[in-house]
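Narrative progress, year one. The postdoctoral researcher (J.K.) led the effort to move from monomer predictions toward full complexes, under supervision of the PI. The following entry was the first complex the group processed end to end, covering 656 residues in total.
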Amino acid sequence: MDLAAAGVDALRAAIAPATAAYALAALGLNLQFGYAGLLNLGHAGFMAVGAYGLATTVAVFGGGFWLGVAVGLAAAAAFGLLLGMPTVRLRADYLAITTIAASEILRFVLRSGWAQPWTGGVYGLQRFAEEFYALNPFATSNNYAIGPVVVDARTLWLMVVGWALVAAAAVLLVLLLRSPWGRVLSSVRQDEDLARSLGKNVFAYKLQALVIGGVLGGVAGILLAVDQQNVNPDNYGSVVTFFVYTIVILGGAGRAMAPVTGAVVFWLVISATDSVLRQAVDSGTVSWSWFGPQQVGVARFVLVGLALMLIVVFRPQGLFTWRRRVRT
Amino acid sequence: MTNATVTATRAALPRRSVVVLLAVALGAAATAAFASPVQVAQATLDGARFGLVIALSGVGLSLIFATTGLFNFAHGEFVTFGAILAWLCNVMLGLPLTLAAAVAVIGGAAAGASVEYGIWRPLRRHGVGLVAAIVVSIGLAMFTRHLFLFFFHGQSRSYREYTVQQAWHLLGVQLLPKDLVTMLVALAALAALGIFLKRSRTGQAVRATADDPDLSQASGIATDRVVLLVWSLGGALAALGGVVLALDDQVSWDMGFRVLLLVIAGVTLGGLGTVRGAIAGGLIIGVVTQLSTLWAPSELKYVFALIALVAILIFRPQGIFGRAQRIG
């Protein structure tokens, strides 16, 4: 078994543009969940809205790439407002159901034949990022090495842009959370009634957190779409939201920079495990009849589910306190 | 509750049932404008069958929420578990389906009890909060669902018996014998549960715990045992729901997850914590879903159910038969 190759694969996954996208999504979700205490189970919906905003503008309506990005971000903000205004005041479990329902409604509509002229239905949309790749300053014929990982010029360009966005978002969030706005948000999460009694508009703060977090999710969706040059509604199912939750909780919900480390560690471990398992099956080291090649792909989901449970229980960061069900 | 409130609630119930019936009748009449009465009748019948299956699968979720405050996002996996267990007994061991269904029900009860004993009781003892518990249930759902995929593989399979049947024709409406059996089984199980909760002492203990856990415990009710019973019943009924769902839909690794949102919609719409609510909500969701296929593309039929869920959570979160409580 070639552990070195598994290590290189893991490193590749750790610095990939997709990981940067998940880091952005996690930064957004951390603001909504870790800081504002909103159990938003529809984060994949924000990512889908951002991605489709870009793809539909460019591939269907023939607009420019940057117009598409603007549309994607505006759409994510609008989705946040539309979703948040009636629901932000709900209790955690009801908000969770509403957000996951909204995200699934969006996914059903995006993949329907009725919406096919605008969204490509189940086939999705392709080829909308050429303008972005045309700006690539790296010579496209060369491959570049970052340590032991070799990438081509297009991937390198996207990595540079992606991680720059992550850095910018992280810095902005840290500044935002250290500001008076951030302090009020923190107080809202810790004791909503107290914040309200001091005259703070709790509803407005929660809604703002939802929208800002949602826009970050939209940026993540755009980055993922540009990476794959493909948007497909089934890429934005609830499993994506659960992955982002695992990343946020792994990094430590409620700490500003934590989602970034969470994303890197998450994809590092998943990729390493995938690689090792695949090699074990291929090389015959593991030859149980019930563990074949198709089981390797499933293993990551089993691990993520298990990890989510164990981390929440054994490393809760002291963020979750037992509150008796309030009844009047 | 004072006598005045009791009489007021009793008077409200028939009025609410009448309103519900009127609404459904109106909906059916409106749909008749788009389609022939026979089509409407067929859609209503199909919807009623699906709705009863949803109610059967979801009543456990409803009772678990009422007694423990936990919204069990892993409930769909009980449904899948029942279907798969019945399939194993039916296809691998050669048992007749009725016997396999009985095994599935017992297996579901055991699964529910073990999950409560092994996971939720220790978490409650440790003071893990509501939000954390929901996230754990999400992780558990992902873990078990992909274990099913791991061992059962991706393709759907059917039971040995009752796969192809001759439909009965009544006044232009088609009915498969297995669908009639499904409806009768679901109704019988739900009725039995309702009678158990209303008439027996243990049922009374369950209702008391759902009402006020602390007061029940102070009155001498062993709330831990009540909760264990509720989880076992929930698992058993969901497993039965899985078996009848698979009669129509085939057995697959994610069948429970796919109907989970609809199940949640059904029990929430009807009112969490009541059997009557689960039946009413399930029926409404089932009928609305099927009626919508008469005038909208059938791929969007679940969207209408989800929109109903979001609407009910925003405007009347306690559902039709639930009691008004603070939900935010």
